[in-house]
Design a protein that fits this description.
It is a single chain. By secondary structure, the protein is α/β, with parallel strands linked by helices. Helices cover 32% and strands 22% of the residues. The strands form four sheets. A six-stranded mixed β-sheet has the order 2-3-1-4-5-6, with helices on both faces. Helix 11 (356-369) crosses helix 12. Mean pLDDT is 82; it is low at 29-37 and 203-212.
Amino acid sequence: MSLPVVAIVGRPNVGKSSLLNCIARRMIGIVDPTPGVTRDRVSTVCNVNDVYFELVDTGGFGIEDHDNLTVHVEQQIRYAIIQAALILFVVDARESVTPLDEEVARLLRRHDRRVLLVANKVDQFNVEPLIGEFHKLGFGGALPVSAHHNIGRRELLERIAKVVGPLSSGAVEDPVMKIAVVGKRNSGKSTFINSIAGEERVIVSEVPGTTRDAVDVRFEKDGRQLLVIDTAGVRKKNKMTTDIEFYGFVRAQRSITRADVVLLFIDAAEPVSQVDKKLASFIADNDKPCILVVNKWDLAKGQAATSDYEEYLTKMLPEVDYAPISTITAKEGRGVMATIDLATSLFKQARTRVGTARLNEVLEAAKEQRSASPRRGNKAVRIYYGTQVGTTPPTVVVFVNKPDLIRDDYRRFLLNRLREHLPFPEVPIRLVFRSRRRDTLPAGVADS
């Protein structure tokens, strides 16, 4: 479903990301005094009195990017302008019109789009002396706002709704599935995103750390709305040299927690790193379905058999030993949509519920397979019965006489049996042991 786009455009450090956060009423874009923090198009869906639109933040026009990405940033700005039904041209009310403001104005006039001039950083009531000069940019009077202090938000939203209201087609369908794409720097995450989107939705560069924000990309597959979240590449904590890198790491963690399925990108051309292990642990700690996406497989497949590489990953990342492996070459689009299909399968597995009778059949078979129960001295564990009490992740409670006697090896044994015989073999299972007396068994469950 296509929504009208409202693009936020302006020179560096006029408060575009702050305005995005102000309108959306939540932290989406990174706000930092360092010029040029935003590079990609960062977007979110907004609703103003049942008028829905996609709000898109862009990088600062004219920024001299330290990593020589200026051309890429400005290309992203142009993409946003071309797609926009309305452009919020943001200027700094505390400063006079600058040459870069005038350059942005010329760019907008060439594209012939509806433009609303927004004077940000207005922190006093008598604003006319501050913003009158901006008339000469050619877009009428500037609307005074303060994104930081939430001043002028209501009038700004009313102006936006007036323009995009006739273009909005009602409520937006929530994504069926949210997929977070995480990994260390330069593992190919943004290339993967662009392959799905069918356009340069995010900047791809050999420069490490190109992506800084978490970028949401909506797309449709088989008639269903899906959301893929691109995240900043993660590096070791002791190598994070700026607040921006730390913000990117925190957003990667938040993306994992809000996702239904996580794609952990592994660079096939490099050994598994401490960053890979740290991300795998965080994914496992949050009970998230995960795919180990081995990118750049074209560089490694001649050096190692797929089965050997899978064994290597299982050994190096035991926290997510349940995770299936997908080998891809994102640059050429190989395996990209198959990975999305696999994510859909995991999404379904995590929401599967099995009956108590079937679950206890598996537990009984497991008891017979491993007759020696965990014990301490002359005390042995007796399994009475189990029941599934939740999904996402599948959560199984097993009632026993002595929960404190359950060792990690026996827990792993039962988890493996559950994965082997129940319809959620590739997702995390939360297994809980509780005490239950023999005389409280449910009807139909035998004591053995």
